[in-house]
């Protein structure tokens, strides 16, 4: 686990668990092993982390205990994982939602002068 310098945040999509507000959860670093770290990234569907090194993931990313099945833990406190444990419990739509920004359609402006139409009557002699 990381030092107590700051809060730990869960890297799983749609999970807002952190060590400041959820003291009942354990937080687990991504594995140092490249293949296992990649397996965790794929399991939690974090495409933005796929090109990160395993050392970056180990130092900066954690997954909370909510995302591991019961049989993945070594003890009842759920603070130690079995070797080879992989997070599998996620609340992710298939495929994951992506944030979309809606923009207004551009307004077309013209620099031409508008001329008012007027009715005129002409007398013919």
UniProtKB/TrEMBL annotation:
Decide whether keyword DNA-binding is in the record.
yes
Q: List the SMART domains hit by this protein, alphabetically.
A: DM3, THAP
Write out the GO biological process terms: regulation of transcription by RNA polymerase II
Gene Ontology cellular component annotations, sorted alphabetically: nucleus
Q: Which superkingdom is the protein from?
A: Eukaryota
Stored Pfam families: THAP
Q: Entry's InterPro entries? A: THAP1/10, THAP_Znf, THAP_Znf_sf
Listed PROSITE patterns: ZF_THAP
One GO term in the molecular function aspect is: RNA polymerase II cis-regulatory region sequence-specific DNA binding
Q: Which residues form the THAP-type domain?
A: 1-90
Its keywords, alphabetically, are: DNA-binding, Metal-binding, Zinc, Zinc-finger
PANTHER family found in the cross-reference section: THAP DOMAIN-CONTAINING, THAP DOMAIN-CONTAINING PROTEIN 1
- UniProt protein name: THAP-type domain-containing protein
Task: Give the species this sequence originates from.
Answer: Aquatica leii
């Amino acid at each position: 686990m990381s030092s107590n310098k700051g809060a730990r945040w869960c890297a799983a999509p749609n999970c807002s668990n952190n060590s400041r507000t959820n003291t009942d959860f354990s937080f687990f670093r991504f594995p140092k092993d490249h293949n296992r770290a990649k397996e965790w990234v794929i399991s939690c569907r974090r495409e933005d982390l796929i090109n990160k090194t395993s050392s970056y993931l180990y130092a900066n990313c954690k997954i909370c205990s909510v995302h591991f099945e019961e049989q993945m833990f070594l003890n009842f406190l759920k603070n130690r994982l079995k070797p080879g444990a992989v997070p599998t419990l996620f609340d992710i739509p298939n495929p994951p939602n992506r944030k979309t920004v809606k923009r207004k359609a551009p307004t077309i402006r013209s620099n031409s002068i508008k001329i008012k139409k007027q009715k005129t009557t002409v007398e013919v002699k």
